[in-house]
Design goal:
Blueprint: E1 2-5, H1 12-29, H2 33-48, H3 59-79, E2 94-97, H4 102-107, H5 113-129, H6 135-144, H7 174-184, E3 189-194, E4 197-202, E5 214-216, H8 234-245
Antiparallel strand pairs: 1-2, 3-4, 4-5
Helix pairs in contact: 1-3, 2-3, 5-6, 7-8
Length: 251
């Protein structure tokens, strides 16, 4: 296993300096980089699933994820020391090569992450242009978010979630989508536009420039349009805004 930094324009010496800084963080915390990566994997998986209360990361996983993020920040600072501010990356730049998905392997489940990552932008695009409710889009959202182990299709029996529930009606049932959104983002503001249909989701406590804490379906917060036409209905609008907010997890 080895840490790798994805920082455009960095020299080998700068990258090595960043890796050393990250390794020092793990050493101080008394965990391995692998434990940190698995903690982050658990935390992001919980996020993607909508923060279900019965599937929270363990305390150890949560702490390991925090150490990973601290190490990632330390690596960026060390690698990019002396760089112009606009060249310093503001996203996660660190990865662990050949990290085994131990939980998936132990359960004998296929790793669907590559397929889900590839499908994500297609799902967002289809939400933007669909003329109305679309059950296949509902199925694909559930698969992308990791709620079902394989991609369902309309020509097969509809699968149930791990809890035995039907796949949510993301493109038709506003009440259901809003309930999930409010459960996942308890202190956030959710605004639904009706004429035209639109949705805005944001953390009122965040700074105005915190783009990752603000999500819109059609008209962005600065007044610009994210797509040509507004969504077909309010359920699609809110689902689209929430899916845009997941983009950082699929980069």
């Amino acid at each position: 296993m080895e840490l790798r930094l994805n920082i455009e324009g960095a020299t080998p010496e700068e990258l090595a300096r960043g890796v050393a800084a990250a390794e020092a963080v793990f050493a101080r915390a008394g965990i391995t980089a692998l434990q940190g990566a698995e903690g982050l994997f658990a935390l992001e998986g919980w996020d993607i699933k909508g923060f279900p209360e019965d599937d929270q990361p363990t305390e150890d996983e949560d702490q390991a994820a925090s150490v990973w993020m601290e190490a990632d920040e330390a690596a960026t600072i060390a690698c990019c020391a002396g760089w112009p501010e606009d060249k310093v990356p503001r996203h996660q730049i660190m990865e662990l090569i050949d990290v085994p998905r131990t939980r998936l392997q132990a359960e004998g489940l296929p790793d669907t992450w590559p397929a889900r990552r590839q499908l994500y932008p297609d799902v967002v695009k289809r939400l933007e242009v669909t003329a109305g409710p679309d059950r296949q889009i509902d199925f694909d959202i559930a698969f992308v978010l990791g709620w079902v182990p394989e991609r369902p299709t309309l020509d097969r029996v509809e699968p149930l979630s791990e809890d035995g529930d039907r796949i949510p009606f993301f493109t038709s049932d506003l009440a259901q989508v809003e309930e999930m959104a409010r459960k996942a983002l308890k202190d956030w503001t959710i605004e639904i536009g009706r004429d035209p249909y639109d949705a805005h989701v944001f953390d009122p406590a965040a700074a105005d420039d915190g783009d990752e804490l603000r999500m819109a379906a059609w008209r962005d917060f600065d007044g610009s349009l994210l797509m040509e036409k507004p969504p077909a209905n309010p359920a699609i609008a809110l689902t689209l805004a929430m899916m845009r907010g997941q983009s950082m997890h699929f980069e």
